Amino acid sequence: MGRPTKFNRDDAIEIAMNTFWAKGYTPTSVSDLATAMSITRSSFYNSFETCESVFAEAMVRYQNDNIDLHLETRFPGISAGDSLHIFFNKVCEKLASDPMARGCLIINCFVQANEEKPAPPGVYGFIDSKLQQFTTRVDEAKAEGALDSAVNTETVATSLLTFLIGLNVISKTIREEYKLKAMTKQFLENAGFKSPKAD
How many domains does the chain have? Predict the structure, then answer.
């Protein structure tokens, strides 16, 4: 038999995204997803084949809903350092505004992964992409004279990525936006990125 007539793939992906977000990738089973979607296991396999394939679709949905243009795109008159402050402040606002304190879906999966149970390839692609974005910002800050040219770009970029991951984790227990932003400001200033004058 085919899928139930009421099955809506778009709604199912939304449900899968929230299920992975709540439980994590590795702990989420086919039964968990099928139950959440109100479909049978056979319907799940007919529609998505594997947990990894449905997660790939869910991750695309998540990223489309959480575009960080302030990091990926520079706007006229905004320095590399300012763009980092803007980006991290937006992250703090988003993390603090989630009443369920779930953190970032993709970073959660990355943190939960280990050698025996690696995260799906898309998760590592996301992390690599963020590292490259930070690398670009650090190089721009050096070109602007905000950072010393002798600064090791890889080290600073990796530190920014590490802080992003740590911010995601700590936001699950520190829920106040102003506290997250204060930590962020201190970290970025210590890394050599002065706060925007408007702060």
Answer: 2
